[in-house]
Each structure stands twice: as structure tokens, then as C-alpha cells.
Specification:
The chain is of the alpha/beta class. The protein is built from 13 helices and 7 strands. It has 2 domains: 179 residues, Vaccinia Virus protein VP39 (Rossmann fold, 3-Layer(aba) Sandwich), CATH 3.40.50.150; 78 residues, no CATH class. Helices cover 47% and strands 15% of the residues. The two termini are 31 Å apart.
């Protein structure tokens, strides 16, 4: 949804924007082009493995330290980074939530039930517990709550009773355990939800999202724009509610009336985009 994101952010020469989820840098490169001459993009990603590769690619395209600043950070740290840089506000912020294809397709990262690899799932592998460690310590109530809250899993009670406290060290071991508990089609439907629920849990994704949604107004200049791409209902609900509350109290002058969805052609080209929803808002003027 590159065109829709650019239309919502409307980057102009000389402005300062932030991409809180740099990933492969596809959105960032286009935003950067719109900010030149004279503008600057602050690009964040909490993943220490893919950030250097993306930086090398963007620098090779001619974006110097004047126009592109990179930090390995959770986007929840945006207010602190802005303060460190001495920036008083941003003209635009992009959040493209979730995982990049590079992360999903790397078996060593343990994000996918389709790969053989350690059950890790940390976006920052230098921090926090792996999904395997979290699962081994979880009691059934805690796991059931995570499955229900993070993925609306209809079989949460049954899966939680059987999986909580288990030592499942690989993606394959967890997938096999789910398949042994549910009939074939139910298990195949549950697998992406179980993996999503654990990933959200070990990375505290909702905590980070709620934190940035709270802090966004103070990070944006008057008339600053925000664009947020979400990929499941738990993310979209939080974004929708925060933007609607900001519209109601006058923080935002305008918010997207309904989420924008990818075109059929984009979904054909990139099936992972099929659940994407884009919401945007524009900060009110004044202080
Ligand atoms: C969907 S990808 C972004 C793709 C990017 N827009 C592009 O054009 O290549 C999401 C990226 O955000 C990062 N990420 C997810 N949650 C984050 C968070 N709370 N703070 C910082 N980075 C995060 C992931 O590590 C991943 O690289």
C-alpha cells in the first residue's frame, strides 16, 4: 500500500519524518525521496540483524547522514530519541506493524510454523525470553489469555491446557503438538493464530503499540500526519480507538473515515498484504 501511505503522509521537501518500522526500507526510500532536498527521515527498527543490511542499501542509494538517521530501537522509544536529537516534532510518522518477509522467511528466527527452526520469535534476539522459554513457564490461564487476546483463538482453552508448561524447543515441535490436539483443518487454521499469539506475547507488541499511540500527539508538529498499517484485528482495534479518541478531543483534525485496503492486484502480487489495513490521521494546528 505504498501509494496510499505516501498519499497519507504527503512528505514534502525540508520536512522531518520518522519510520518506526524500517524493515527492508521500501517505504523509507520513497518517503526519503519526498523529503528532499533538505528533509530528514529518522528510521527505527528493533531488529539488530536486519537494520545494518537496510542501512547499507539506503546509503548506497545516496541517502547520507544528513537526510537519514537510523537507530536500533523499539518505536515506543520515539519520544526519547526525538529528545536526544533535539527535535521538537515530526511532520509525519509511519508504522508498518508486524514482521518483514526477511524475518518470517529466516528459519533461524523461529517465526513460522512452515519452517524448521528454534522456537525463538524475538524481533530483538538480544533481549527478552524466547517463545520456547515463555511457553515452558506459562500456566494454562496465562496461555489461554494470550491466545484469546493476541489472536482471537477459538480453541484457546483446550490448546492452553495441553500446551502450557511444555518444553517445545522448535517450531516443528509446537506445530506437531497443535496438530495432535485438533482435527486436521482446525489445526491448520489454528497454527498461524498460535504462532501470532506467542510472537505478540514475547515481543510485547500491544504494549509498544499502546505506548506509541499515547505518545504520538506529542511527537507530531501541528498538521503532522501519521499512517499506520495493521495486519490483524488486535492491532487495528487499538489504532482505530486511539485515533477516534484523538479526533474527539481535538488532537487530530482529521482521521481516515474507514481503513484503506490493498487492491486485488497488490494482494495477487503479495498475498501477505491481504489482511493489511491502513489508517491515517492529521494532527490539529496550534499547540
Ligand atoms: C512489516 S515490516 C516493515 C516493512 C517496511 N515498511 C518496508 O517497507 O520494508 C515491520 C518491521 O518493523 C519492525 N518492528 C516491529 N515492531 C517494532 C517495534 N515495536 N519497534 C521497532 N521496530 C519494530 C520489525 O522488526 C520489522 O522489521
Amino acid at each position: 500500500m505504498l501509494a496510499e501511505v505516501l498519499s497519507a503522509l504527503d512528505p514534502r521537501p525540508g520536512e522531518r519524518m520518522a519510520d518506526g518500522t524500517l524493515g527492508h526500507g521500501g517505504h523509507a526510500a520513497e518517503i526519503l525521496a519526498g523529503l528532499q532536498p533538505g528533509g530528514c527521515l529518522l528510521a527505527l527498527d528493533q531488529d539488530p540483524l536486519q537494520l545494518p543490511a537496510t542501512e547499507t542499501r539506503l546509503r548506497a542509494r545516496g541517502f547520507t547522514a544528513e537526510s537519514l538517521i537510523l537507530r536500533r530501537s523499539n518505536f515506543a522509544g520515539l519520544p526519547r530519541i526525538l529528545a536526544d536529537l533535539g527535535w521538537t516534532g515530526l511532520d509525519g510518522v509511519l508504522l508498518d506493524l508486524g514482521l518483514s518477509s526477511m524475518q518470517i522467511d529466516n528459519p533461524e528466527r523461529g517465526f513460522s510454523y512452515k519452517h524448521h527452526g528454534p522456537l525463538d520469535m524475538r524481533m530483538n534476539p538480544n533481549r527478552g525470553e524466547t517463545a520456547a522459554a515463555w511457553l515452558a513457564k506459562a500456566d494454562p490461564d496465562k496461555l489461554e489469555a494470550a491466545l484469546a487476546r493476541n489472536a482471537d483463538e477459538p480453541h484457546a482453552p483446550r490448546l492452553a491446557r495441553a500446551l502450557a508448561g511444555r518444553q517445545l524447543e522448535t517450531c516443528e515441535a509446537l506445530a506437531d503438538a497443535v496438530r495432535s490436539l485438533l482435527p486436521g483443518p482446525d489445526a491448520e487454521a489454528a497454527l498461524p493464530r498460535v504462532f501470532q499469539a506467542l510472537r505478540i506475547q514475547v515481543n510485547d507488541e500491544f504494549g509498544a503499540l499502546e505506548s506509541i499511540l499515547r505518545d504520538l500527539p506529542q511527537c507530531l508538529n501541528p498538521h503532522g500526519r501519521v499512517a499506520i498499517l495493521t495486519f490483524h484485528s488486535g492491532e487495528d482495534r487499538r489504532v482505530k480507538q486511539a485515533l477516534a479518541a484523538g479526533r474527539k478531543d481535538g488532537t487530530y483534525a482529521e482521521v481516515s473515515p474507514s481503513p484503506l485496503r490493498p487492491s486485488a492486484a497488490e494482494v495477487r502480487e503479495n498475498p501477505r498484504a491481504s489482511c493489511a489495513k491502513l489508517r491515517w490521521a492529521r494532527r490539529a494546528g496550534g499547540t
